[in-house]
Amino acid sequence: MTAPDLVLPPCDFTVFGGTGDLALRKLLPGLYEQERRGQLPAGTRIIGVSRSPLDDAGYRDLVTRALFDHVAEDHLEAGALHRLTARLHHLSLDIGSADDWHRLHGLLKDRPDRPAGEEATRIHYLAVASELFGPICDRLDALGLVTPECRVVLEKPIGADLASSHQVNDAVGRVFAERQIFRIDHYLGKESVQNLLVTRFANVFLEPIWNSRWVDHVQITVSETLGVAGRGEYYDKAGALRDMVQNHLLQMLCLIAMEPPTYVGGDPVRDEKLKVLQALKPLTGADVDRFTVRGQYTSYGEKVGHPSTTETFVALRAEVQNWRWAGVPFYLRTGKRLARKESTIEVVFKEPPHAMFPHSEGVTTPNRLTVRMQPDEGMQLHMTAKHPGPGGIRLHPASLDLSYADAFDERSPEPYERLLMDVMRGIPTLFMRRDEVEAAWTWTQPVLEQWERAAVEPVRYHPGSEGPAAAARLLARDGRRWQEAGR
Where is the active site (predicted)? Predict the structure, then answer.
């Protein structure tokens, strides 16, 4: 999915929102790791754009402190820190100020290291609210800062609903061609998520059983122990469905359910993901009430400073209505202030069709494939084995465990490291296309509307718990239960 032998030209990497939490916690540490590994092209500049009244020196100090906070201590190297900070610039910019935009124009056009008429590749990373995407793109275009080799990176969520998603995509699309737009979902940059593609399509043993004949159901869980932290203002407008389900969880569902593409790259992968989103059975009206759970942890209102009906937990039951997956439920859940920080995919297979060991001790359990994204990235294949010993057969659950940390003597890159490099290389495979984003909103929108129409308060759950009891009942009605990774 990457091209390590591709020689990259210098680029100007402009981060709008360059002093924000995302930039300091994820983007700059990701760029530092690229610098440490010698992957940033010579002549590349990183320009933080924000309303903060910082000069270059002040911005370099701010970023250095952030790197010490968010980069592993054994990865902090004086040489790499010096090289990265030498690339850093900061521009204070008010979006409504023509003078500020002309200063950005001057900074980006002032490249004495480039031959006359030859410009560095420009990457504009919009780490700001999506309602600012259009105005920023219009300004860049008006100043002649958009060329065929330019790229723009959009952070999720793209809009707050289907209508606003259309508006944002239209605004950006008036300036940038679709091939230039990289809509980022950092979950697609996780090693374990990408390895799911490799496991499925570079091996033959799973494909014959990767269908409704053998798979009983699929579970996708993303749970967090933290609350809203410093994101209260944003989160209270978004909620868990917009913040996590519409993008991260549906993208993982697509990778599980998609048909084999002609090859793993660019549009072939995105074409197949789109087909999955279009095949999702709509959830409307009474189905929303029956197949979704909306929860909120009990101290949430205190954290955001006012009573709120915003959900911090969602569980739901989805179905992919196609030949491969007809009748197989996909259970999705995500929440804050839960018992564990955990991101997993569980593919649960059906019971053996015939009991072959009637006089054995113990019981058979369904085979499961567990994909762990955090903690401890890896995979486990759970099966039933014979417990060693003489005499009768004693059945015992066992697992084959692939831990990436143990199997590969190499650190797994953080998602943003990989995705930022893919932007520089112009590789779109792990980014969402417009039709994908809007298909996900099309499926999500009726759930939002039904919740609003029904005006039902989210069910409360205690911080540090497994979430609302209603989430367990959602599966119990089908005779199933949530699996916990490694158990």
Answer: 248 (proton acceptor)
Summarize the annotated binding site for NADP(+) as residue ranges: 51, 94-95, 156
Return binding residues for substrate: 186, 190, 224, 243, 336, 341
Residue among 166, 248, 359, 462 flagged as catalytic: 248
Burial of 26 (0-12, 13-18, 19+ CB in 10 A): buried
Question: Active-site residue 70, yes or no?
Answer: no
161 found inside a domain? no
Looking at every residue in the chain, the average pLDDT score rounds to 89
Write out pLDDT tens, residues 175-234.
999 999 999 998 888 888 888 888 888 888 888 999 999 999 999 999 999 998 777 788
Q: Would you state the pLDDT for residue 486?
A: 46
Instruction: Kindly state whether residue 176 falls inside one of the protein's structural domains.
Output: no
Q: Residue positions in the annotated binding site?
A: 51, 94-95, 156, 186, 190, 224, 243, 336, 341
- In the listed set 135, 155, 175, which residue is the last one of a domain according to the structure? 155
| Residues 144 and 216 occupy one common structural domain | no
* Whether the predicted pLDDT of 273 surpasses 50: yes
How would DSSP label each residue in 406-474?
HH-SSPPPPHHHHHHHHHHHT--TTSB-HHHHHHHHHHHHHHHHHHHHHTPPPEEE-TTBS--HHHHHH
Does a cis peptide bond (omega within 30 degrees of 0) precede residue 307?
A: no
Q: Is the pLDDT of residue 462 over 90?
A: yes
Say if pTM beats, i.e. exceeds, 0.85. yes
